[in-house]
Amino acid sequence: MSNTPDNLKYTKSHEWVRDEGDGTVSVGITDHAQELLGDLVFVELPEVGTQLTAGDECAVVESVKAASDVYSPLDGEVTEANEALADSPEAINEAPYDNWIFRLRLSNPAQLDELLDAEAYAALAEED
Amino acid sequence: MPFIPHTDKEVRQMLDVIGAESIDDLFDEIPDALRCGSLESLGDGLWEQEISTLMQEKAREDGQPLCFIGAGAYDHHIPAAVWQLATRGEYYTAYTPYQAEASQGTLQLLYEYQSMMTELMAMDVSNASLYDGASALAEAVLMAVRANRKSKSRRILIPRALHPHYRATVHTLVKNQGIELVEVAYDDKTGQTSLDDLNRHKGGDFAALVIPQPNFFGVLEDVDVLAGWAQANGMLSIAVVNPLAMALLTPPGEWGPQGVDICCGEGQPLGAPLSSGGPYFGFMCCSQKLVRQMPGRIIGRTVDLDGREGFALTLQAREQHIRRSKATSNICTNQGLMVTAATIHMSLMGAEGLSRIARRCHGNLQLLVGKLTGLGEIEPRFSGSVFHEAVLTLPMETRQVLRTLAAHNVLGGFDLATHYPELGNALLICATENRSGNDMDKYRLKMEQVLASRRQGACATMAKFD
Amino acid sequence: MLIFEHSKPGRRAQAQAPSADKPAGIPEKLLRKRKPRLPEVSEMQAVRHYTRLSQKNFSIDTQFYPLGSCTMKYNPRACNSLAMLPGLINRHPLAPDTHSQGFMSAMHELQEILKEVTGMSAVSLAPMAGAQGEFSGIAMIRAYHDARNDTGRTEILVPDAAHGTNPATAVMCGYKAREIPTKADGDVDMDALQDALGPQTAGIMLTNPSTLGVFERRIKEIADRVHGAGGLLYYDGANLNAILGRVRPGDMGFDVIHMNLHKTFSTPHGGGGPGAGPVGVSERLLPFLPIPMVGTDGRDFHWLTEEQCPQSIGRLSAFAGNAGVLLRAYVYAKMLGAEGMHRVADYSTLNANYMLKRLMDAGFTAAYPERRATHEFIITLKKEAKELGVNAMDFAKRLLDYGMHAPTTYFPLLVPECFLIEPTETEARESLDAFVDAMIQIREEAKTDAEKLKGAPYSLPVRRLDDVRAARELDLHWQPGEDQA
């Protein structure tokens, strides 16, 4: 059974979003997603400064047998990419919610309300 | 029944197990209207002796002419051991190493190949090969467009002095993705890619510059300057090299201030016979930072459950079977058998052997150019220094000269008229280590007779000299 | 042990190197300063090393190799020795027609043979592999629409069960790949197809029999609907072995096809290439075929290039494709003749149906139990995975210990825990029985000691390899000095 913390928001495409309270959010992939993918071997990060629209492909997580796009959950500009993941992609397997992939400065914070809460996401993950 | 082991009795027993009356029944899901006829135009099958006779006749028909053509395919000596080993059933009849444990022979060999190519090219990484030199360049172009983060350009600078068939192949393979090839002229005097023409594009937005070494004319490019120019102008550099030449010449990893980003080329000189143009193999190397953009199979060394060294396909997430429409290429395999031959070839030759072959070829070319220009009416077309191939200017139509020489079983070179009409009566010649002094004397003699009969005003075309 | 570890500075295979002078006329700055660190070994060391390495491979010549969708049939030795005759193997690709009639006559006849067995109007031998054949096919579809100024077509339809090269090829040709679902019985979902078709449809890529190992029964109707929408049909020849001499893609309504000669025409797989992927077309795509091809005036043969084929999609290689592979396919086709072609589909289908029935009788689960097997079929080990805790990969690895290559695993992705099994027509009944018996035996082992199976194989040069480490800690070449300290 995978872990789905209550204090985060989620997307149907298995990203989690943490509101940092300063107009930015951190984005990663869920415990359920990392379980499905298996041992990660590479994370392709977005470039800082990229303008994203919700639903844009902006990063890639790779395991040995699969590669999965990470979609931007919200509109905004990439302010930071977690370069540490380049050397240790396995950190996501070990602690998916401690290891964000990129941070966004939101251009439309109201979109946060459209994301799934923990309960809704857990139900969705259950169906997989 | 050739190659089918079933006895009538077995067929009956197998059908009984299946619960079918006849083999025909097994096709009962196929609509009747789709069943095809007897294919009788194919005729009866031949037994092995008949097909052997037929093939020997065809092989004899094409003869064994004295070949002075290069132009991208070179008649080199291949040690006997190379193909005796490569056609062992365990190499010849295995498939792509999907089950790594049952494919360690092929996998280790490919790892050794990657190691040899990175050494020969002085590059960080090599893939396990692509189809041929021309298509490898197309893949390199696609890779450069994906990889150049400084430029979003889909334009590539490509020298006119690059093999015309390579330019045509690249065009076929990249045009549907909106990639444009912009030609860079060559210097009419030296035969090198023209810096003046290149400088017209200074400050222009291009994804990459292609740098051949040697170029199609056999002329050596000033590669340090070209690689530096690309870097200074925000482009990636793609080297296209003859791998045998790299035993002698500065390798792409050492060109310019930082080496090139991608290098590729035709692997044929490393153990593949001429064989009418294929199968050969394309090689590709790149810098470490581009490895995830590289197309094709890549082998890595790892360990097994017991900690023993072993080899496996790696970085597979780039490939079509995982990434599907987002893969780096649609390429599925490599040219495994040709690479098997190349790896054995390089092991037998070593660096010293390859270097000696390269020098012998180069020496032979110098000899041949001397013999032909010694006839008085033939001159080297370009002043640039060359490696094992050169362009000559003839006093009469190249096509006619070649036709006459061919009638005497001498293939005198490649006629540049179709692809480079601006060069006039130009002929591209090559003399590998397989051409002896006698061979070259025979060529000189025939050429002398062609020229003499022209001076006498005789119709040279089909004249008989011997 | 790597070849580099046999190396000693100054040792050489002397017989392989001529004497040579210093290179004259090459500027010093262009000359290599440091020699590449290639192996320095004797000829015998190299021969012994690569002979030993070969013994670490499974191959058709040594093992049953029922790798689904790959057609690992016997590669007749005559095909190899005759393609390597001196006059053929030493022919320069740019030799004049006067010195090429033997070679060109064989290529021309091969074009004709392939036309006849596929029911197409013309064939080009230029593509160097299946994936290049696919590329040529879709590029021709694009050239056809472009030539008619029909430029609004942006999508290629691909069944969700398709091989990964199909969508990757569509993208290489500048198209978007759109997936069509498959129904539970293995046929294409016609309603979904109808919904997907429109003025944006450039064409559809199909394999028939499909990658699910069943014949697409409504192929004619699919052809009519796609043509009705203005699209063209592309046939992926991956499974041509199933229908050779029985059904022709041209008669099914396909506009363009590629063939994998390394499958259907028995040229060697060579550890992953070289292949050959000739393309055949219907009348309307004829002007767009890739060059070069061989033409004839009835007496002599000549090349067809840009000049004669101005609308061609162009060249795909520096010369004329994988000629040596084409010669092997030619020899094979000539040895089969008309009768032999029919037998390919007949006996490959007999073998597959026999194996399927025996496996089902032994309690294994067919993915499509109501359907006939074609030349291959799928079983799903979902039940075994659930009940015994051993998955398809464990079965596959254990089969290696039984001296058989594993079938294709985990492809197509639609069927969980699947084995795609293709015995081919050249296997004797004993091999098929031995495989089924091994499967039964492995299931018994799983019942008593599932953990043991998870550690298989035990009898090969290595056990299961650490793929994760291979991808995380990239070691892609030997480092000079690492083992010569």
Automatic annotation (TrEMBL), chain A:
CDD domains: GCS_H. Its cofactor is (R)-lipoate. The modification N6-lipoyllysine is found at K65. Residues 24-105 form the Lipoyl-binding domain. Pfam families: GCV_H. GO terms for biological process: glycine decarboxylation via glycine cleavage system; protein lipoylation. It comes from the Bacteria. Keywords: Lipoyl. The keyword Electron transport does not apply. PANTHER family: GLYCINE CLEAVAGE SYSTEM H PROTEIN, GLYCINE CLEAVAGE SYSTEM H PROTEIN-RELATED. The glycine cleavage system catalyzes the degradation of glycine. The H protein shuttles the methylamine group of glycine from the P protein to the T protein. Belongs to the GcvH family. This is Glycine cleavage system H protein. It comes from Thiolapillus brandeum.
From TrEMBL, chain B:
Residues 3-441 form the Glycine cleavage system P-protein N-terminal domain. It catalyses: N(6)-[(R)-lipoyl]-L-lysyl-[glycine-cleavage complex H protein] + glycine + H(+) = N(6)-[(R)-S(8)-aminomethyldihydrolipoyl]-L-lysyl-[glycine-cleavage complex H protein] + CO2. Keywords: Oxidoreductase. Coiled coil: none annotated. One of its GO terms (molecular function) is glycine dehydrogenase (decarboxylating) activity. The keyword Oxidoreductase applies. One of its GO terms (biological process) is nucleoside metabolic process. It holds the Pfam family GDC-P. The glycine cleavage system catalyzes the degradation of glycine. The P protein binds the alpha-amino group of glycine through its pyridoxal phosphate cofactor; CO(2) is released and the remaining methylamine moiety is then transferred to the lipoamide cofactor of the H protein. NCBIfam families: PRK00451.1. HAMAP family: GcvPA. This is Probable glycine dehydrogenase (decarboxylating) subunit 1. It comes from Thiolapillus brandeum. The lineage of its organism: Bacteria, Pseudomonadati, Pseudomonadota, Gammaproteobacteria, Chromatiales. The gene is gcvPA.
From TrEMBL, chain C:
Its EC number is 1.4.4.2. Residues 347-448 form the Glycine dehydrogenase C-terminal domain. Residues 1-27 are annotated as: Disordered. The modification N6-(pyridoxal phosphate)lysine is found at K263. It catalyses: N(6)-[(R)-lipoyl]-L-lysyl-[glycine-cleavage complex H protein] + glycine + H(+) = N(6)-[(R)-S(8)-aminomethyldihydrolipoyl]-L-lysyl-[glycine-cleavage complex H protein] + CO2. GO terms for cellular component: cytosol; glycine cleavage complex. The keyword Glycoprotein does not apply. Pfam families: GcvP2_C. The keyword Oxidoreductase applies. It is an enzyme of class 1 (oxidoreductase). Its cofactor is pyridoxal 5'-phosphate. Keywords: Oxidoreductase, Pyridoxal phosphate. Belongs to the GcvP family. C-terminal subunit subfamily. The glycine cleavage system catalyzes the degradation of glycine. The P protein binds the alpha-amino group of glycine through its pyridoxal phosphate cofactor; CO(2) is released and the remaining methylamine moiety is then transferred to the lipoamide cofactor of the H protein. This is Probable glycine dehydrogenase (decarboxylating) subunit 2. It comes from Thiolapillus brandeum.
